[in-house]
Amino acid sequence: MKPDVSLDFQYTSSIEQVWNALIDSDMLAKWIWDNNFKPIVGYKFQFRAEPSEWWDGIVNGEVLEVEEPHKLSYTWLSAGESTTVTWTLSEGSDGTIHLHLDQTGFSEETKARKGAIEGAKYGWSNMNDKLEKLLATL
User: Fold this and answer.
1) Level-2 CATH architecture, domain 5-133
2) What is the pLDDT of residues 75-115, one digit of tens each?
3) Cα(124)–Cα(109) distance, integer angstroms
């Protein structure tokens, strides 16, 4: 299945630093939202953001896969939509860390809604900007 959202990011930080930013609850809170995440397969967690008139601010998730430091996958259930987020890390020959994001499983209704997938891409790209700034402080 082709991912609905597929994005690539590059960092000069070490693969361990990028991996820790994906799995450490305190670090996740600095670039995504407050959470109780633990990198344990089967662990159920929440991300909590500021609610709005159209969203309660809660993302429920369950960890599906943890292959340190190369792959992390979890469900992302929010606003009635259930998707899967998969992060894949690899190190380039020049030492650059490549972080790939796939988000799959959006409903046909959501995919048909103008701007919905673009909005998800925008949201992840905006979070990536925060991640980049966080990594620069390590």
Assistant:
1) 2-Layer Sandwich (3.30)
2) 999 988 999 999 999 999 999 999 999 999 999 999 999 99
3) 21
